[in-house]
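hi! just following up on the protien thing from before. the input was this:
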Amino acid sequence: MDINKEYIKYVCIYRVYSGYKEISQIEDVKETEEDLRNNYSNIGGIDSWLCERLGIDLIILGNLKSNNKILKEKIDKLFKNQFTEERKNGFGSFKDFYEWYLEQGDKCFYCETSSDILEELFDSKKLNSTKFNSTLHIERLNPKEKYSRKNCRLACSLCNNTKSDLISKENYKKYFSKAMESFLNDLKNNKIENKTF
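and the predicted 3d structure came back as:
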């Protein structure tokens, strides 16, 4: 068993630190929310449950928390900002949503710019806007259909807003994707400036 992967699954995907209710909803957990609270509240709480589940001690758990802090923050942000009620209905559980998210490769479907590059461009103010940011949006390929694995892709805020509902996926890919990719790469590599005022 890969302890690090298991830790990420329980903490980031199943979100066990949200409470005993979340733990009781994990498929192979037999205890009720009340049973879990009664069994673990007085002996270290969720940390104790997680150590028991993973077969580790509190020192190893502390190391896992430290080593995965940035990843956890990123996944928590994704959960908070992107997993809306409407998307819950289309994707099902956060686990299903997160698996879909990983399949997207953490990059824009159109210009293929990674979230790390977008973050670098916005943090350095090479792209500076109150309306746009580095967060990848969940783009519905067919805006008339609901959110689902089949109908959604990740898109950077630039491509998502440029394409809007005005340009088809095929036309955007054919006429605009490469241009956006070139622009963002040149901006990242300091080949161009982008002073808008």
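The chain has eleven helices and two strands.
The chain has a mean pLDDT of 92.
cheers
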